[in-house]
Structure formats: C-alpha cells, structure tokens
Specification:
CATH class of the largest domain: Alpha Beta
Order of helices and strands: HEEEEHEHEHEHEHEEHEEEHEEHEHHHH
Helix content: 25-40%
Strand content: 15-25%
CATH topology of the largest domain: Rossmann fold
Shape: globular
Oligomer: single chain
Distance between the termini: 21 Å
Length: 357
C-alpha cells in the first residue's frame, strides 16, 4: 500500500498460483473450505503484507471474515500476518491472471491495495502496478462475479485527480477509472498520510527525532517554495486503525457502493509542526533543529540527476518531490456523512503507541 501523501515522508528515505492455507482444505488449487456458519464471508486482498494490508487483514479476521491473501513471498507473509484459522495464502503476482482467478474464486469481496511510490526495474512501473494491475484485478473480479456479486474496495490516494501530470497520480487515476467503469459493486478510498507504530513513515520520523537516521544533526522537511524558512505544507495524518476500519466497514455497507471517499485525520498541522509532535512524544527524542529544504530545489535536483542517469542516487524522484509540496488535508465530508467516519486526532493517536517506537 502506498498513498500520495506518504511521498512527503518517503522523499527522505531513501508459475501458476497455488494456495498455502494455514488450516483450510485445498483441492486442485482452489480452496473448497466452506465459509463457517456465522462468518460474514470470504474476502480476497492484494497488498496484504504491506503496512496497511496487515492491519486490514487483522481487522477482517477479528470480524470473522475468511481472508484469502495474494502474496509474492510466502515466507514474509507467514512472518507478518497472523497465523491461524481464517487466513489462506495464495502465491502469485498481481499481474498473473491465473493467480488472480484463483484468488477470486468464490469470494464475496476484494480489497485491492497494491501500489508503489517509486518505479524500480522490471515490472515495477507505475503503469503496471497502478493501472494495469487494477485492470487485471477488476477483470478477475468480473469473471468471478458471474457466480456471485463481488464488492471491490480500492486503495487510491489523497490528491489523485484528473489532469495531473505526475506519473504516480496519473496512473492511480487510471486505476480508479478502471474500477469506476466496471460492473463490480465498488468503493474507492483516498487516504492521506497514514501513520502507525509499524508504519514506515512513523519509524522514519522516530529515527530522525532521535538523531539515528540521516541527516542525524537536524530533522528535514520540504517547504512548498524557495524559502527554506517557510512552514511546511499542511497535513492531516490519518491513523492506520481508522483506515482499516473504514475499508472493512465499506465491504458490508451498500451506501458506499459507487462512491469515492477521502480519508484524512482530524488534526491538521504543518509538516514541521507534525515533526515537533514526534519530538515531544517519541521516547528518546533529541532537541534537534528542524531545517526546511526548498521543494523546488529538490525538484530541480531530481530533474538534473535523472537526465544524466543518476536519479537513483536520490531518495526521491521528481514526482515525489512535486507531490511533497502539495497539502494533504481534507474535510472528509462525504465519509463523515455517509459512513460515520470519525478519525482520531494525530497527537492523541500517536500518544497511544509512542511507547512502542
């Protein structure tokens, strides 16, 4: 899972499918275990081993769902996902049509989370991971829905919109359009900057404020213009538990069908003020200065190094730097009105898990 808002933090970081169930029967590669009496049904999920995916899997299992997770690495899945009744692993890739068909057979819902924040080699391109993968997941869902209606819950990102020239946002929107044009009973969520004790951004921020990660002597943030003394962009971090609850609620809420919802937190801060909250609450944090890095300078740097084939030397690319200058806030009016969305304030939720960092 990824989100456009997570870019703000990430800029500083640098064969056929087969089931491997924990305790389910398997026949010819298809899980034939009947959904237990009283269970809401069976949900397929992509991106299950990611930060948000792990929380959604746990939430689904807690609610009694049978969960079928498409995974590329079974060893990682067994390490990070809960072992026990209700979870079945399907080994395969999100671009593998056979794997997707086996994932979708007999399910009631699909939660599609797969995405990348930066392109890598091989198939790890925005076009493949955001647009083509979604088209294939949707197509598999439509084939499976001939036997029973399927709910489709799509992970997008706050800030995704028509007309964006940033490859991440453009391909995310292409994925949304594939969902919107489908015959599935779909819902799209656009979360902002997601935080939680096991999230990459929170762990990175904790390392910064402790002086245990580059640049060690100060805590960096991007400013939206050339002024390094300006405040950071506005952000409303959303707690991962709130995101997981909304995804799982939507699976059984018909009011969410055909709707797109923003998910942001209840507390809006500038990016630098958010980092100050980390400094205040993270155990072992130091009184390091916060230093603004002009966003346009980062964009220029990424362009120049990218033009000479040295872009990978930076922990961000041009698109990431451009998105890091965009606000990550929303009133979430539709989600509140239709789904009862009531997110926790950032400071309060961070305080609840700070001792785990």
């Amino acid at each position: 899972m990824d989100s456009a808002a997570s870019v703000i933090g990430r800029c500083y970081l640098g064969a056929a499918a087969r089931h491997r169930p924990y305790d389910a029967r398997v026949e010819n590669g298809i899980d034939t275990t009947a959904t237990p009496t009283g269970s809401p049904g069976t949900a397929a999920i992509t991106g299950a081993t990611g930060f948000v995916g792990q929380h959604i899997v746990r939430e689904l299992l807690m609610r009694g769902w049978q969960v079928r997770a498409l995974v590329r690495s079974e060893s990682k899945a067994r390490r990070v996902l809960p072992e026990g009744t209700g979870l079945t692993l399907v080994s395969g890739d999100v671009l593998d049509t056979a794997a997707l068909d086996r994932l979708m057979t007999g399910v009631d819902a699909c939660i599609h989370l797969v995405g990348i924040i930066r392109e890598a080699g091989g198939q790890q391109t925005f076009e493949n991971m955001h647009a083509e993968a979604t088209r294939r997941v949707v197509a598999a869902g439509e084939r499976a829905s001939r036997a029973r209606p399927i709910r489709h819950i799509q992970m997008s990102a706050l800030g995704v919109r028509d007309g964006s020239t940033i490859p991440y946002q453009r391909t995310k929107r292409e994925g949304e359009r594939a969902v919107e044009a489908s015959s599935l009973r779909w819902t799209i969520f656009r979360p902002g900057l997601i935080h939680g004790h096991d999230g990459e951004f929170t762990q990175m921020a904790a390392a910064w404020v402790r002086g245990k990660s580059a640049p060690w002597l100060f805590v960096p943030f991007f400013t939206p213009g050339w002024n390094p003394f300006a405040k950071g962009v506005p952000v409303a971090p959303v707690f991962v538990d709130d995101v997981a609850r909304m995804f799982c609620d939507a699976v059984t809420n018909d009011a969410a069908i055909g709707r797109t919802y923003d998910l942001a937190g209840a507390e809006t801060l500038t990016f630098d003020d958010m980092l100050r909250v980390y400094q205040r609450l993270v155990p072992g944090a130091k009184r390091l200065p916060l230093v603004g890095v002009p966003g346009p300078l980062a964009v220029l740097q990424a362009k120049l190094l990218g033009a000479v084939g040295l872009g990978k030397l930076l922990p961000f690319d041009e698109g990431m730097a451009r998105m890091a200058m965009e606000p990550s806030v929303s009133e979430c009016t539709l989600a509140k009105a239709e789904l009862g969305y009531d997110p926790e304030p950032f400071t309060e939720s961070l305080r609840s898990y700070a001792d785990k960092l």
